[in-house]
Structure to design on (185 residues):
């Protein structure tokens, strides 16, 4: 409930040749709330370092190996503003791995160890401020841990062994039956 003090009926009249506009303080409050809710906010995970939200520039994050849980990697990239902070993260968790400053040329290199990650698709991301002042995001995607589980591997081995045994049996028994049928004829 709105206190009686706040319930004053303040209004501003503004005349335009085409229309008449009447603004109340309640209408202004609703307009501000609607405007705030209507603006999409980008979802940045763990890294707060970014420039202007639009346009967002993208590129490829260079990594010196095959990313997987527990592996130590060196990542590098270019195109950042000189001396600006670059944040490297696993975007799928979100988990910040390193924060490093770009050198005079706008390049960076950092070494980190990947945490334990769930099996599946993941993205390594470096976020920072581009030379132009926009946000620059460098990405590289990787798949973590898609190997057959041990019981699946054992079952596959037995299935292949059984198929080989049946195939061998068919090959050995078939020629024997043909030879017997020729002798009786």
């Amino acid at each position: 409930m709105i206190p009686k003090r706040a319930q004053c009926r303040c209004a501003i009249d503004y005349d335009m040749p085409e229309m008449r506009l009447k603004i109340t303080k309640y209408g202004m409050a609703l307009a501000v709330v609607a405007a705030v809710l209507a603006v999409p906010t980008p979802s940045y995970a763990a890294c707060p370092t970014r420039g202007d939200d639009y346009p967002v520039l993208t590129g490829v994050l260079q990594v010196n190996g095959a990313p997987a849980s527990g592996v130590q990697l060196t990542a590098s990239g270019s195109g950042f503003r000189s001396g600006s902070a670059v944040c490297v993260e696993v975007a799928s968790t979100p988990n910040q791995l390193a924060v490093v400053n770009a050198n005079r040329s706008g390049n960076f290199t950092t070494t980190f160890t990947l945490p334990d990650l769930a099996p599946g698709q993941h993205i390594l991301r470096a976020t920072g401020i581009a030379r132009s002042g926009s946000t620059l995001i460098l990405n590289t995607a990787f798949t973590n841990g898609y190997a057959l589980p041990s019981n699946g591997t054992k079952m596959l081995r037995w299935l292949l062994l059984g198929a080989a045994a049946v195939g061998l049996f068919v090959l050995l028994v078939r020629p024997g039956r043909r030879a017997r049928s020729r002798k009786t004829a």
